[in-house]
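Hi everyone,

Forwarding the result from last night's run.
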Amino acid sequence: DFRNSITNPLLFFGVFLNSNGERLRLALKAVIFDLDGTLINSAIPFKKMKTRIIKYLEDAGVTPGLLNEEMLNFEITRKAVDDLKSKGFSEKYIKKTLDEVSNLMNEVELESSDDASLIPGVPETLKALKDQGLKLGLMTRSCRKYAEKILGKFGLRRYFDVILARDDIENPKPDPSHAIELLKLLNVSAEETLFIGDHWSDAECAKSSGLKFVLFRRDENSHVEKSEFSKIRNIKEILRIIKGNG
């Protein structure tokens, strides 16, 4: 049960019970981070992005009014694809349309990068994790150019062994393939890996890929039920969690 696995600290942070009821501890080998809202305060104007995407998709043949700005980007594109397919548009046309949507998203993200700010404690936390010999991965629904630019801006790139962005993979999170591919590149298993993110889509990705998950929330505003997840409010708390796991 996923809910139990993330509220029971013995299960959640690497202590498991075998069929004989004996406690087994799995060594932590890697930590995966989300980017926006977890490592940085994003300045991406999502409403502006969605408005532009929806207008483009409607001009491309998607039923007017089907999409709205309350949807997440992946929900917008998924509904748009289903609608275009139902109308008989070709796979080639749909791919071209999605490529243009991706370009629009990239453009808005990159325009916002100069206004992003670093979340307190992040550099120290990443350095401490690397000093412990852990592998670090970045899994983001932002584009690679944006991710690389942000990490470079704050001097964080050197800490990450692998980055897997939206445009590096066919189906980004919450699809589990995003996490599964990142685990392959890190050469670790899901059981050996902790994932830290700030959104329900991160939690859903963790659930479907078998990753242990920590929800990073600095406030009570969340799309996730308040009682559902183990949470941290300061990114440095990860160090305490991992120390307790060793």
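Residues 91-112 form the longest helix (22 residues).

Cheers,
N.
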